[in-house]
Amino acid sequence: MDIRPYAIAISDAELADLQSRLERTRWPAALGDDWERGTPVPYAQRLAEYWRTRYDWRAEEARLNRLPQVLAEVDGQPIHGLHVRSEEEAAVPLLLIHGYPSSFVEFAGIAPKLAERPGVTSGVGPAPAFHVVAPSIPGFGFSTPLTSHGWDIARTARAFDELMQALGYDRYAVFGEDVGAGISEQLCLDAGDRVLGSIAATDPGSIATQYTPPTDHLTDDEREHHERLKDARAEDFGYLALQTTRPLSVAYGLTDSPIAQATWIAEKFQEWTDPDRALPEEAVDLDALLTLITVSWFGRAGDGAANMLYEAAHAQVAWGRSHDRPQGIAAFGHEPLMRRILDPDGHLAFWSEHRHGGHFPAMEAPDELVGDLRAYFARLLAV
């Protein structure tokens, strides 16, 4: 496999083009400040002004480039990501897999922390340091452009398994969130003993989708509450209906307009982060959010992300398969039904709950997520 070191180097011309497009944005009518119909125009205008006049891409580019990165070609597809090796001899290889609409950027803050010597024990054995690999899913971040159709969850899992082995990691741990949790599950099925164990992040929105596990065991009151959660989430699925049926229809706008890309992502940060935070920048650092958006813009990832959701929705699914890999969950956001639905029998190897946080825990609650990863894999290694 062709794997080489990588450094981000956006040209001055690309930066100037971004500035020009921001200055020439054609705005919809500003009819209010609420988020019910999407990112409100006044908020979008403030975000664009900050992005254009105060956000410093060069400083963010330099920050990202302080983290070791690789670019590989797997099955004909460019795959870019972080590869932060620990100085600890006994460090555990750890594959971090983001969800929608994220990228490797989400893990830039926690990767160095995970690679450090912990300095504390978990109570069941020494907490491990990690060799961190955080690739962007094909079509996301700088794992672009997509070179073919067919990059669904199963093909992505195979590519990530090949990448880990090519980097020298015959056995490794896995963390995933959202669609990344699906890729983690696929790795447990297909890579078998090469996966030490997996842990998924979840939030209240995860139990209000069409993919929720069986709920026959819930009480009548719990079932009514679950239906209210699903009803509240129903109007949030417009993005999914469009991208799983006509991804190109949205890809043109996301590829051609930085404001379309920014508001598309910002709306999900408003909707899916901690509900106690009214605005995206109250849940995550604004510059970090804009870095994720800017990487998506320069990587032209709106197109690839839309197509990945289409592929996942139309892929053949092998229902009924099982595996013996240990699994854990780190739950963010207070919702008692999460464990009642996702781990009703307490069979998971690890469960941790945090009152705050949401869909993007590496950005919203980094210390809590790092603690969970150390505690879970320390427990597995102690067995």
UniProtKB/TrEMBL annotation:
Keyword Hydrolase: yes
UniProt entry tagged with the keyword Hydrolase: yes
Gene Ontology MF: a single term: epoxide hydrolase activity
Superkingdom, taxonomy of origin: Bacteria
Residue ranges constituting the Epoxide hydrolase N-terminal domain according to the UniProt record: 3-107
Keyword terms: Aromatic hydrocarbons catabolism, Hydrolase
UniProt-annotated catalytic positions: D178 (nucleophile), Y310 (proton donor), H359 (proton acceptor)
UniProt record, GO biological process: epoxide metabolic process
Family stated for the protein in its record: Belongs to the peptidase S33 family.
Name this polypeptide is given: Pimeloyl-ACP methyl ester carboxylesterase
Natural source organism: Agromyces ramosus
